């Protein structure tokens, strides 16, 4: 009997990512949501194939390992996009203060 | 001039000097690298060719054409490309995240290869294919992000 539910897994993944990323979630929403759908469906499929006996223990283990590594890659991608976003915020702040700072100091420091 | 500026805005200079010496433009992640991007695309192309070939053979019940031995050379090509790509990313500054992705992708292909040796059925191949493709899509998405457009 199947225990894993696609909707439940998917929504939990999205909720966790949305909470962690907060304001930066929109920047990664598309790629993350699409990836989470695949990951959620893969878990359901692996469980079902194992229950049906259409895959062996060894094959289930390999698929779960692939699932783990794919999850890792998705999280690393979210991380990179998050870092780029933070970088843009810092550089925008530096740009914003460049003119008034240079004017205040009387020479170009930035 | 410097002393006059310092007296009035000493707090501002204390804040700004570290930033100035660090950089006037901050880069928290590595710069986009066209060679790395091209290499990733090459891996993606070769993996896609393997996946589609296996899928079509299954659909047409050509199971013998899907034997691991018939595709051994494809795996050698893919693994050598991934190894070369890993060395490229390891040599670039602030590319640690991308290197970790390549290592994880390589492991995914190793597991896919192991699955292949056990023999694919349709659903197993479909699930494995979806995971490999998601891995590749995310690696390419991270490259697009590094373009900073």
Name the descriptors.
heterodimer; A: 110 residues; mainly alpha; 0% strand; elongated; B: 149 residues; 6 helices; 76% helix
Structure description:
The complex is a heterodimer of chains A (110) and B (149). Chain A is mainly alpha-helical and 110 residues long. Chain A has one domain. Chain A is built from 3 helices and no strands. The longest helix of chain A has 49 residues. With 149 residues, chain B is an all-alpha fold. Chain B has one domain.
Helix content of chain B: over 70%
**Mean residue pLDDT of chain A:** 91
The amount of beta strand of chain A, in percent, is under 5%
Number of beta strands of chain B: 0
Globular, elongated, flat, extended or rod-shaped: what is the shape of chain A?
elongated
What structural category characterises the helix and strand content of chain A? Answer: mainly alpha
Helical content of chain A stands at over 70%
* Major sheet size, sense and barrel closure of chain B: none
Order of helices and strands of chain A: HHH
Domains of chain B, number: 1
Euclidean distance between termini CA atoms of chain B: 40 Å
> What integer is the average pLDDT of chain B?
90
Number of helices of chain B: 6
User: Main beta sheet of chain A: strand number and arrangement?
Assistant: none
| Stretches with pLDDT under 50, minimum 5 residues of chain B | none
Shape designation of chain B: elongated
- Chain oligomer state: heterodimer
Question: Radius of gyration of chain B, Cα only, in angstroms?
Answer: 23 Å
Biggest interface pair, residues each? A-B, 46 and 48 residues
Q: Proportion of β residues of chain B? A: under 5%
SSE ordering of chain B? HHHHHH
